[in-house]
Design a protein that fits this description.
alpha/beta, VC0802-like, Rossmann fold, 2 domains, eight-stranded mixed sheet, seven-stranded mixed sheet
Length: about 375
């Protein structure tokens, strides 16, 4: 039996409860939410499972040591005293990143450098050899987190952020983060039991994440590598067993997932990404201007999209958001429509009252994720008032 240990999953602001629920469903123990993070307990196999199967996690960290620090000497001394040979060979490679929330320390790059110095000096003094730094593909990626006077040293089991799923071949100017896309779909309550539409689909991120949720496909199957594959205790047989177990829990999907975009280049990119994700059996992408479309059929439609914010596009935002409201009201009865925007002023021009409004961040932009319920009925559309 593998022994259990503490881990921390990092996420985006507002997704903590989603991630805690995902962890609980996967089988994590002692799940506890924080800010942009969720702590939990599991064994090595569960660490592999968390990296493969969590949709709203950005990183899975394994804390290995914690101590109090008042100055850089405390930091260096504590790091030097650790037994780093347990984690990396003297001839191996390392990378260090640091996050700091402290009045005593202000420069995260300096803290990362100081951490590297302590580790390298320890190896040089004990073995005569020293690890080199490799920022792209290190054997060991180390995370330093200082909160006031408390320092936690963790091993980064993920490597590249887990939003890099591996299915995107091409993107647009402002591609949506895959973790953000998955979280939005989950927040919207979509469960794969109805048709799904993204009427402004860009390079197809929301469509692909929706299909993976509907079919219960692990989100990170297509990643080239996780950091733990370079660890000294890497167990490829256990990993393949976990992978096969997750794949055995996929399910059929009997509805439609449709994406529209009025830019031919976006449609081409979305089709390519959908094909690369091997989801073209479930997703159809069409060259359409949403404002000139109508809902087909009477069945319930679940819509999630990411309209332009005006950050990079030179369009009349008030008119654009008014058109969103008019199109939903006149042409999309029996639809739950959700979209995210950081243009809070333009949101006022939709002309419909949202039934839900959730505060989130898209990158560093404060945003709102809003829901409009369009009821069946007259062409004018009875909507949530």
């Amino acid at each position: 039996m593998e022994e259990n240990f503490n881990m921390v999953a990092k996420t985006l602001f507002g997704f903590e409860d989603l991630l805690a629920n995902e962890l609980t469903q996967l089988g994590a123990q002692q799940v506890k939410t924080g800010v942009r993070s969720v702590a939990f307990v599991g064994d090595k196999g569960f660490m592999y499972k968390a990296n493969l199967g969590l949709r709203t996690a950005i990183k899975i960290l394994k804390p290995i040591h914690a101590f109090s620090v008042k100055n850089e000497h405390d930091l260096y001394k504590n790091l030097y005293e650790m037994d780093w040979a347990k984690y990396v060979k003297p001839t191996g490679t390392i990378a260090v990143d640091a996050t700091i929330h402290s009045e005593l320390f202000t420069n995260s790059l300096y803290i990362a450098q100081k951490t590297k110095d302590a580790i390298v000096d320890k190896f040089r003094d004990t073995s005569g050899e020293r690890p080199n730094v490799d920022l792209k593909f290190p054997d060991l990626k180390i995370n330093v987190h200082i909160d006031r006077q408390q320092c936690t040293i963790s091993l980064d089991s993920s490597g590249d952020s887990l939003h890099k799923r591996g299915y995107k071949l091409t993107t647009n100017i402002a591609p949506m983060n895959e973790v953000l896309a998955a979280g939005l779909i989950m927040l919207s309550g979509w469960d794969g039991q109805s048709d799904f539409m993204d009427p402004m689909c860009g390079s197809g991120t929301l469509l692909i994440e929706a299909a993976m949720i509907a079919c219960n496909i692990p989100p990170n199957l297509m990643r080239k590598e996780f950091a733990f594959e370079r660890w000294q205790d890497w167990d490829v047989d256990l990993f393949e067993k976990i992978e096969a177990s997750l794949l055995g829990k996929t399910r059929d999907f009997h509805h439609k997932i449709v994406g529209y975009d009025k830019a031919p280049s976006a449609v081409a990119k979305a089709i390519e990404n959908v094909k690369n994700a091997q989801l073209d059996d479930f997703i159809e992408v069409k060259h359409e201007d949403f404002f000139k479309t109508q809902k087909g059929g009477d069945a319930k439609l679940h819509m999630v999209f990411n309209p332009p914010y005006g950050e990079r596009l030179n369009i009349d935002m008030q008119e654009f958001y008014k058109n969103i409201g008019d199109t939903l009201k006149q042409s999309y009865p029996n639809t739950d429509a959700w979209f995210i925007t950081s243009n809070l002023d333009a949101l006022k021009h939709v002309g419909l009252r949202p039934s839900r409004k959730i505060q989130l961040f898209n990158a560093k932009l404060e945003a709102r994720f809003v829901k409009y319920v369009m009821y069946e009925g007259s062409k004018k559309g009875k909507y949530m008032a």
